[in-house]
Amino acid sequence: MIIGVPKEIKNNENRVGLTPAGVAELRKHGHTLLVQAGAGGGSGFDDADYEQAGAQLLPTIADVYGQADMIIKVKEPIAEEYPLIKENQLLFTYFHFASGEALTHAMIERKAICLAYETVELPNRALPLLIPMSEVAGRMAPQEGAKYLEKPLKGRGILLGGVPGVKPAHVLVLGAGIVGTQAAKVAAGLGAQVTIMDINLNRLRELDDFMPKNVVTQYSNEYNIREAIKTTDLVVGAVLIPGAKAPHLITRDMLKTMRPGTVLVDVAVDQGGCIETCRPTTHEDPTFIIDDVVHYCVANMPGAVPYTSTLALTNATLPYAVKLANLGWQAACRQDAALRLGLNVVHGEVVYKGVAEAWGLPLVDVAHVLEPVTA
């Protein structure tokens, strides 16, 4: 199979879809790797590294899309890439269709095979291709929140961990999944007083067993959230419904009950956000203020630490990429139920329930698109 790795062109996205080690592994299986010149530069991988691993370097993104059977990326294609995508071309990347109506319709129109990292799901409900970036984003959330709590950046002017004789900041984490757990661990490690909320009591019991004493668990409901935000300095939104829009747990009217300079970090923004007033921002212009509350809503947080993120992502995606390349997407998805759940849009048809519901589109049974082609 001919596999293409284009340079990411989303604002300040420095990750790359495949490391040189990933290229070498796919070459070992006999596949042709086409990498756009400069694609790995932001992550610390030179063109020479890719050439040494066996890749062919191409000068433009159009060259990569034009020749590849499968595209391996990090972020969803943006408008400039839509015309480059070919019918029947396999795109293996993050899509987050439930928060991108224009993207959804564009991929339907292009009749590509869109296999989304974020909906590949194991029998135990784990999301193996989302977990590494969730770990990165979760650990970054308190770090970014601590920065924007500083007064010059319009925050409350409070140090997350406090000092002897001065209380630490209070951090509220909404969601006790991968992102929320990592955020709570880092915030607690920095000395903050942390409350983590979720609707899964079993998960809260698990956290209560291993979290440090400055982390407390609380059941998540509107009343408890409304009460907590009155005295919270930093809120981390970490709610995920795989492949679907995140629910709004903090609404516009709640902002007026928060103290001026409170910081909101909505890690769920790429799935529509769990804070009603959040909208996607970029590393170039990461925050905005509503009702004196600072909103940090960067949709590609891990892109700020691309070396770590690219390595972590390739570690997770490479075995699936090898399977797709070796068997072809239909056979691979027939054999692997987790990979099959990654199919979102195929040949102009929506095959993932969360995407169809988000935009009121007809849902086609994924078994239909997996039927082997007969002569």
TrEMBL record:
Q: Mind listing the GO biological process terms from this record?
A: L-alanine catabolic process
Q: Which GO molecular function annotation, any one, does this entry have?
A: nucleotide binding
* Residues annotated as the enzyme's active site: 96, 270
Binding residue positions for substrate: 15, 75
One GO cellular component term of this record is:
plasma membrane
| Annotated ranges, domain Alanine dehydrogenase/pyridine nucleotide transhydrogenase N-terminal | 4-137
Entry-linked PROSITE patterns: ALADH_PNT_1, ALADH_PNT_2
What is the top EC class of this enzyme, as a single word? oxidoreductase
Name of the protein: Alanine dehydrogenase
